[in-house]
Amino acid sequence: MYTMSKTEPLCLSLLNICKSLTTFKQIHANVLKLGLESDPFIAGKLLHHCAISLSDSLHYACRLFRYTPNPDVFMNNTLIRGLYESDRPQDSLLKFIEMRRNSLSHPDSFSFAFIVKAAANLRSVRVGIQLHCQALVHGLDTHLFVGTTLISMYGECGFVGFARKVFDEMPEPNAIAWNAMVTACCRGGDMKGGRELFDLMPVRNLMSWNVMLAGYTKAGELELAREMFLEMPMKDDVSWSTMIVGFAHNGYFEEAFSFFRELQRKGMRPNETSLTGVLSACAQAGALEFGKILHGFIEKSGLAWIVSVNNALLDTYSKCGNVHMAQLVFERIMNERNIVSWTSMMAALAMHGHGEEAIGIFHKMEESGIRPDEIVLCLKRSKGLENVAAVDFSHNHLSGSIPDTIGSWKSLEKLFMENNMFSGVIPATLGDGRAVFGSVYKGELGDGTVVAVKVLDIEKYGSWKSFLAESWKEWIKGSKRRLDGGLLNILERLNVAIDVACAVDYLHHDCEIPVVHCDLKPSNVLFDKDMTAKVGDFGLAKLLAERGADQQPITCTGGLRGSIGYIPPEYGLGLRPSTPGDVYSYGVMLLELFTGKSPTHEIFSGGSSIIKWVESAFPASIEQVVDPELFTGKSATHECLITILGVGLSCSVDSPDRRTNMRESLLKLKTARDTLLKPPLDHKPDLDLEAGIGDSSM
């Protein structure tokens, strides 16, 4: 029988009032001093409070668990729960695996319920199925708690059919299980199935009605939502919030306002969700006066301390054109600002033409110690930033998509973005307001990383200062030359062609999903310091889904992809981007590289083209079309050039089905290089006398 020592009640009472990790560490130190750390009851209470009750203390809970001898199943479950509720739910899976391998305690129903919730948070049905199998092995699959969690997991992952099978196998599902199944249907968009289950429910509680309300509003079935709302025997703040937010998000702002007024007439107190929902409706509808009324209500009701409500109020004033009131709201929440507060204020200032003030707010946010999770929203509404000359977001650990609107910053000369995690591409219009394609440049970040940057107007003052133009195109045109004044020789050009072919071959054949570049051309091929060619500018690239062999080509109604002279003919007929399309562009590039003539050269007019021009001289008279710089008078050179031009022509035939694929083309080019490098039969190598010194065979 367990007996409690005299000091244990004191420790437990201190835990109940503990609100910070600092205080918890003091209590823990006292437990160690009293020698109570080996008491399973005290150790379990300590771990539970640290992992579940306190915020930002999970790392300490993990250390506490590590130094606890023989943790029982309760302690394992506690840590698994704390981890699955964190921003790294995958760590709970590792802890569950460790429990299965090392612990003397077997997982129970709570273990599986918590770990299945981790799979749901990860949206990983594969992990969920594996855990389902483990539950079967332990005979817990039909356990009410575990079964309900499995239903929720499958619903969260979008597998409503799997959820229904689990539900049908439950011997006596309770109201929670019924609600979980209805929720799964609603999440999966099966409102008809959800309604059928709702009608079959033996007992409906308030949550059952609210789940259906949320499903209807999410699906845009607002009239059905209204009918169900009127049928409800009783309503709570969740019911009202669902209607207000649902109608507002679907663009029915007047109806959202009407529900909010009715909520007040009923004498019910609006909650955080309903207030933010109706403020969102005000912001979208531009209802400034109603927003002011809500502001007064928030102040009188003592709800001004809620950060999310203040953020919504700030956003409302901003979108309704009153940036001064937005600033006042922002100043009021000085000690409670979160990332949404800062970014909303930056967005408000930038949207109303106060670009420099927005940048100033960004720097204040840095000083406060907050690091944004995504690129700041002020960049997306950049109306006051057109006159900014330099912006520095470097070393801020930012992430998110680069917004297209930075392309309107016409006077921007310097944009520092290194040591962040941005996705997307720098807009082609950076430095100019026109939406046309630009040029690709090589840039070097602060850490030495080489990047490709696209800038539109190279004649604009300051736009070229930070970048070095070293593209294939510059070498072909002769504006770039070797130190001896010469152009690229045949071997150097062949190495460039092979480098590009290797890159495109990888995109087409070695990626998990084939990638089509869609804009292969010389200006999108850059050289590094070792003259290795790199393919850049993936702004038009497409991922290809696999198609069956018997499937017909799919037509595309969008615009042409690529650049004039390099666009394959089938794109003009409406066919979608394809790997043979890239092959065609590569073939044209190859012919350009070895003839020195661009496909848009003035000699190619009246139905003529670089392809027809090379064909007319191939193979007997290639000296008429090949760049004169490449002829050396050697037979190996001539043979190599015939092979190269042959590859270019086989890649650029009109029919996509008849084109040589990139892998075969790459092999032929490598064979041509071997031929070029092979010494002639009458060549006598110089003797290296020193090579034989020390050789035991001599």
Descriptive tags:
disordered C terminus, 698 residues, single chain, 28 helices, two-stranded parallel ribbon, mainly alpha
| CATH architecture descriptor of one domain | Orthogonal Bundle
Principal-axis shape: elongated
How many strand segments? 10
Report strand order across the widest sheet: 1-3
Low-confidence stretches: 373-384, 431-439, 455-470, 546-560, 683-698
Number of contiguous helices: 28
CATH superfamily of one domain: Transferase(Phosphotransferase) domain 1
CATH fold assignment of one domain: Transferase(Phosphotransferase), domain 1
**Overall residue-averaged pLDDT value:** 77
Proportion of residues in helical segments:
40-55%
Strand coverage percent: under 5%
**Structural class category:** mainly alpha
Rg for CA atoms: 34 Å
Alpha-carbon distance between the two ends: 89 Å
Largest sheet: 2 strands, parallel
CATH top level assignment of one domain: Mainly Alpha
